[in-house]
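Re: zinc ion structure - here you go.
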Amino acid sequence: MIKIGLEIHCQLTKLESKLFCSCKANYRNLETNSNICPVCVGLPGSLPLLNKKAVEKASMLSLALGCKIPEHISFFRKNYFYPDLPKNFQITQYNAYGPTSIGSDGAVPIEGKTIRIRRIQLEEDPGRLLYEGSSEKTQITLVDYNRAGTPLVEIVTEPDFENPRQVRIFLNVLADLVENLGVSDPYLEGAMRVDGNISVQNGNRVEIKNVGSFRDVEKALHFEMTRQQSLVDRNIQVIAETRHWDDARKITVSSRSKEEEQDYRYLPEADIPIILIKQDKIESLRKQMPESIVDKKERYIKKYGIPQQVADVLSSDKFYSDLFEKAHNESNAKEIANIITTDLMGFADTREKKMDLNLTDRNLSDLADAIIHNKITRNSGKIVLQEMLKTSKSFSEIVANLDLGSMSDTSSLEKIIDEVFKEEEKAVSEAKQNPDTVNYIVGKVMRKTKGKANPNTTLEIIRKKLSV
Ligand code: ZN
Ligand code: MN
């Protein structure tokens, strides 16, 4: 039996300022140690002031993950001595005297299984250490405190995962959820960092830290599962320890550093008062929350008749579901969902490519309208879309330039079909015997018209001529 639990650090990247001071929450691409103040570097006499917006965002996340929010929240000092932590303690939350962290006892459904959320805590990110070479062999370590004090939530799950694949699915669901909720941009480097703990056959638990991507989390857990099982098979006890994922060798390695095993001596943070969270505040936050991915998906299926699988893919991608919302009307919704999921998502699948996407909602809507009104074929639609992405020209301009208007004129279509009949005598006589082979002839006609013929009309004419 395999038990896996996760601790996920998720930065609240949508906030303006840090958790306890007014320095920028977005520390990225700034000059080293320029985004700091006496509070976030912990100078004596400085006092933290809690960012109200951070509490609100974290509360929304708690609600979205089905957690209970306590009547009051409080903060603790987690003491450890490490150069990335200027105060020598991290301000975090800790359920020492009953639940006072921003969320607890939640649940997230994934593929017919429920992953329980033990706790969500609001805390500050430490600074960053920069090594010359590898961290083990480095002669020089530099420290950048720009990140120190950045608001994040740590999400702790129960050990409910039975295999590494479930972990990967859960992490993708969680990333989509935080993005949809508008609390974090999970695809920013370092915005979501995952530690996993794993045990087999009720043996000792091993923690895996420092894993770079969701894919590597899955790989690391898989490696660890196999390693532990092979120890158990040889009657060797698994050592309870922290291991790191070695990305180059694709294995986990024991980390000998002592600082991971110490006692954190949690103390109540006396510089931040206990904060009451009123029920009506929670209700008003709940009302401000955007439609959930699950509700969105249901709406796509029920209101527009979008197929389940398409609705699933579309609703979980914030960028594309936003584009869908802006572009669609009552009649073309299904076609737009189809264009987005079959053509666009493959074309622009990364954050950068999405940001560069040259497509207005108007152009997308016009394209879908033309397809459903048979002004162009679906095939030509793909060409128009590519042209739109390249040139951002309007739909009518592109269709006129490329001469892609569909062949609505039946007599010229019939002429072409007659030509094909002459060229493909054998196929024609075969189709008379076996009407299932008629698609071959349709394909020939489509090729001859460069995809401009409407496949349904073509099929109809061919059938009539063959009398099948
Ligand atoms: Zn600061
Ligand atoms: Mn933490």
